[in-house]
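Can anyone check this?
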Amino acid sequence: MNPTRDGQITRTFSLVIAAICAGILGWMLNADFFDIRNTSVHRAESSPPPAVDKAVIKNVAESYIGRNAFRINTERTREKLRQLPGVSDVLVRTGIDGRLTVTVAYEAPVANWKVGNKSYLVNAEGEVLAQKHLSNLALTVWDESPSTRVIANPKEIHDKSDIVTVARQLADLLNLDVETVAEKLEDPSSRYTEIARGVPDKRATEIREAISESTKLLGVRLESGLSPGDLVNLDALLAAHQLKNNLVHLRLGVKKILHHVGGLSIIDHADRVIEFGDTNHLQGKLIALHAVLEDAKKQRERITSVDLRPIDRPTYRTSNSGPPITSIIESQPQT
């Protein structure tokens, strides 16, 4: 028995096996047989129905058609899909049969958020999922605050203008810090960044004129309304939910919840306007509202509006016409 000869045979055999494996691997990575030919998108069993447009997810999945199944990084694809508004989690699988399967767990909308004549679905974090209205949602908020936003395209600005000059002009127009604006414009690969939101109409007109006259603000534009992925005022959303749940204990039915520059207000079942103002001290304002309603009941006065913004001294207006309205129950017609 020759140890040297046996060792050479073993090494040769190992090299042959490695070459065969490399050849098979190379064939698998380049053979058309393993290319993705079909895609399918499914909803996870525990997922709520999608609030978002499934076509967006399908388009991402179909972008992999023609690519080798073994070259697709399913974890990276999963993370890409998870970034889409309305997607909670994703499972991505590829098969040697040329099929890419995407299983999606969707986020549930918690409220309708209305801006003008458009309605949007938002999740619990205040993220816009889609432009749609669901009548079965318990909460709807009418946003009457200015909806104009200043949007910039950093890539276009980097290509066609000077970032410092644009940042200074925008900072002057919006009364913002130059460094804050410049930081939002730093990434030249980004095609979208929000510089400001809720711009008043007068200021929006000034900005629009400046954009049309300036040769530097080529990547800046104004937009109204919301888009999937935008964030609404989360404090207002949470406060609206709290009011919706607590006002029923005061026997008040909520007809409309409004969000505006001054904060929150509601219109109740009796068409009374109740101003809550900012979202601070909501519990204290509810206690003050209860005291106002009880006092008006004792005085047999009909309240038309309540202002709770001075929480220590709430005020209300009354009307001498018609019977006093004190609660849903007492205002219901007897059967």
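Reply from J.R.: I decoded it. The two ends are 109 Å apart (CA to CA).
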